[in-house]
């Protein structure tokens, strides 16, 4: 990236990745937006957010990016909803989220934005949903395990909440939400309890990367297949926490994050490819020669870089 970041949000739209907000290397909230063109392999500076935030939740829908909650400077929790229209290149504000909180996650399901968990003075259990058509919020069933600094992913129309922490305790709890029933179900625990991790999906599998402990930063990459369980995968070349993950054209991009526990930052991007094959009716995760993780480091003064494949 053009600058080091942690706890920013990365969202993919077509062949571009939008990186918004986060903590900069002065441990201050940031309102910048960096745009990575995957095909051109170049970075641009996008239109800045109206508010500087870190540890937000974010998701995209219908050519718009939604950034919700997070922290202002001083770790003051936010309930703002910021909306970026990609076509118009313009930010606007939606109705404020009912519960101010940071270190939450956000996902779109069936045209609505779900904001789950997080932290203000306490670890949160809220599951609040925003309807863009009415610009209004509703409360839904609370998450069974209160948590913050967790990860989330959407697979087959269901929302998976993975890991995180409650206070000072890292969690391995994995829970799935069925929006049609407004109900939660507990699943097989994450093999490595961790917080500050990132999740995304590829080929019907959830991949979970990185994270943080008291004295170390995790490089674990663990994959979850519904009804099959968890599988250990190739570790990240550079362990990090406070990163984000997005999937574009069969590749997973791991964006930013800190390389040491606590406040730390990096401009690192890693591209990961995994081949998943069915064998005798059972999914076996295999890493072939073409399944690689490529690390790209871009300094502040360099706005273009070269992918070495």
Q: Can you tell me the overall shape? A: globular
Helix content: under 10%
Strand order of the largest sheet: 1-2-3-4
Order of helices and strands: EEEEEEEEEEEEEEEEEEEEEEEEEEEEEE
The CATH C-level name is Mainly Beta
N-end to C-end Cα span: 18 Å
Number of domains: 1
Q: Tally of extended strands?
A: 30
The CATH homologous superfamily: Kelch-type beta propeller
CATH fold group: Neuraminidase
Rg from Cα: 18 Å
Strand content: over 45%
Written account of the structure:
This protein is mainly beta and 309 residues long. It has one domain (9-297): 6 Propeller (Neuraminidase). Helix content is 0%, strand content 45%. It has strands spanning 9-13, 16-20, 33-37, 42-45, 57-61, 64-68, 71-72, 76-77, 81-85, 90-93, 105-109, 112-116, 127-131, 136-139, 151-155, 158-162, 165-166, 169-170, 174-178, 183-186, 198-202, 205-212, 217-225, 229-232, 244-248, 251-255, 268-272, 275-279, 282-286, 293-297. The strands form nine sheets. The protein has a four-stranded antiparallel sheet, with no helix packed on it. β23 and β24 form a beta hairpin. The radius of gyration is 18 Å and the shape is globular. The model is unreliable at 277-292 and 296-309 (pLDDT under 50).
């Amino acid at each position: 990236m053009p600058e080091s970041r942690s706890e920013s949000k990365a969202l993919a739209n077509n062949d571009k990745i939008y990186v918004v907000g986060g903590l900069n290397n002065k441990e201050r909230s940031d309102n910048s937006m960096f745009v990575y063109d995957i095909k051109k392999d170049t970075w641009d500076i996008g239109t800045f957010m109206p508010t500087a935030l870190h540890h937000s939740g974010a998701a995209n829908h219908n050519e718009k990016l939604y950034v919700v909650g997070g922290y202002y400077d001083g770790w003051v929790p936010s309930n703002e909803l910021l909306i970026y229209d990609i076509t118009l290149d313009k930010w606007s504000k939606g109705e404020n989220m009912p519960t101010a909180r940071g270190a939450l996650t956000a996902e779109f399901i069936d045209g609505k934005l779900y904001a789950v968990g997080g932290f203000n003075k306490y670890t949160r259990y809220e599951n609040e949903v925003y309807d863009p058509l009415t610009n209004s919020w509703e409360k839904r069933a609370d998450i069974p395990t209160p948590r913050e600094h967790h990860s989330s992913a959407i697979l087959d129309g269901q929302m998976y909440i993975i890991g995180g922490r409650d206070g000072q305790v890292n969690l391995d709890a994995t829970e799935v939400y069925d929006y049609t029933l407004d109900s939660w179900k507990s699943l097989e625990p994450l093999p490595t309890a961790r917080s500050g991790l990132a999740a995304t999906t590829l080929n019907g599998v959830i991949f979970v990367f990185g994270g943080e402990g008291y004295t170390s930063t995790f490089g674990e990459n663990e994959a979850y297949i519904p009804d099959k369980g968890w599988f250990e995968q190739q570790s990240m070349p550079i362990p990090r926490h406070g990163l984000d993950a997005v999937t574009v054209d069969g590749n997973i991009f791991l964006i930013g994050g800190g390389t040491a526990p606590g406040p730390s930052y990096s401009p690192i991007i890693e591209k990961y490819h995994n081949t998943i094959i069915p064998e005798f009716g059972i999914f076996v995760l295999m890493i072939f020669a073409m399944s690689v993780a490529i690390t790209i480091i871009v300094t502040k003064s360099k706005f273009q870089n070269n992918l070495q494949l």
